[in-house]
Inverse folding.
């Protein structure tokens, strides 16, 4: 039995459903909103890479070490982006959240806060995780700020960790959130989402 079973999560008009080939056109359109594949510090697929991106995610799900979601606008059914559980370690009850990106129009909205509330609630309260982690490019300052705003703690930096799309070698910044820290973080995310949205 896999640690992360197929599940659909929803709140505040956002729905996370298991990523499938049916999401390809929507995912391609989301990436095109801002031409996100041109960002040096992310791994957003270009239009001709979208099918392979989904296929890799499905193979990783089958292998049990990644579970990718399509991030949807619940009312319209529009794909806004994607996020994943990855580096799933059932034996120590640890997962990481990553492979996350959103269409430009969804950025700086309640979408990311809602997604994090959904995946963190599921990780801690349903899967029984003891630790949830994140990793990001050392030059992806926006991602680092977003992770830190959640209340995650910086664990350190892995030097010379992996290749970027442009062939340069990146350092990876690691973060984590422990089960004992979750109640305060959960309260803060709910507070943020309770404020009026412009």
């Amino acid at each position: 039995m896999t640690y992360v079973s197929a599940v659909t999560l929803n709140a505040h008009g956002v729905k996370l459903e298991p990523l499938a080939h049916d999401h390809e056109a929507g995912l391609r359109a989301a990436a095109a909103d801002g031409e996100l594949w041109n960002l040096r510090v992310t791994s957003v697929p270009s239009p001709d890479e979208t099918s392979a991106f989904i296929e890799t995610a499905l193979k990783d799900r089958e292998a049990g070490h990644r579970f990718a979601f399509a991030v949807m606008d619940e009312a319209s059914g529009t794909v806004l982006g994607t996020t994943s559980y990855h580096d799933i370690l059932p034996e120590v009850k640890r997962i990481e959240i990553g492979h996350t990106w959103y269409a430009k129009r969804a950025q700086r909205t309640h979408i990311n806060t809602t997604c994090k509330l959904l995946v963190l609630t599921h990780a801690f309260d349903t899967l029984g995780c003891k630790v949830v982690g994140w990793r990001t490019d050392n030059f992806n300052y926006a991602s680092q700020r977003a992770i830190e705003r959640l209340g995650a703690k910086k664990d350190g930096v892995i030097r010379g960790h992996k290749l970027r799309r442009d062939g340069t070698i990146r350092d990876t910044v690691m973060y984590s959130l422990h089960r004992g820290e979750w109640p305060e973080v959960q309260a803060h995310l709910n507070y943020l989402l309770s404020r009026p949205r412009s």
